[in-house]
Amino acid sequence: MFRKEAVFTFLRAQVSAFLGGLTDYVLMVLLTEVFKLHFSFSILISGIVGAIINFSINRFWVFKNQCSYNSRVNSQLFKFALVVLGSISLKSFGTLVLQKVFQIDYRIGRLITDSFVSYGFNYPLIKYWVFRTNKKQDPVD
């Protein structure tokens, strides 16, 4: 059974992912179409910007880990950075494969790739590894 707080956490995480993802996607298209960067480089740059937005929202609203201890913040930032590197790599590779092998426009390929990466890679790692709390602090799961 799902607990109400777990459902709300998931929904808040989706809002955070949407805002970070929207920033990421719009910036990717802007860098590719206006500044003529290859979409792989655009995904790298826009992914970092979107990740900063996503991390901030996740930390202070979704998972409410407003810990004042620098070591905790540094640990979360390091773990989040690893997730972001994996995410950007998967998004770049997936978009490239869909574009080169299946001739799908990079904008559409990116949306397809994002849906798999977001739910199958980002969310589980962010929830259960980056912002994991011990059960005494967060008994909702």
Low-confidence stretches: 137-141
- Total count of domains: 1
Helical segment tally? 4
Radius of gyration: 16 Å
| Straight-line N-to-C gap | 10 Å
Overall form: globular
- What class do helices, strands and sheet pairing give? mainly alpha
Largest sheet: none
**What is the N-to-C order of secondary-structure elements (H for helix, E for strand)?**
HHHH
Instruction: State mean pLDDT (0 to 100 scale).
Output: 87
Please indicate the percent range of residues in DSSP E strands (runs of 2 or more).
under 5%
Can you give the helix content as a percent range? over 70%
Number of strands: 0
Description:
The chain has one domain. Helix 1 packs antiparallel against helix 4. The protein contains four helices and no strands. Helix content is 79%, strand content 0%. The protein has helices spanning 4-33, 39-62, 70-102, 106-130. The chain is mainly alpha-helical and 141 residues long. Keywords: Membrane, Transmembrane, Transmembrane helix. It is a multi-pass membrane protein.
Topology record:
Elements: H1 4-33, H2 39-62, H3 70-102, H4 106-130
Brief digest:
By secondary structure, the chain is mainly alpha-helical. The protein has helices at residues 4-33, 39-62, 70-102, 106-130.
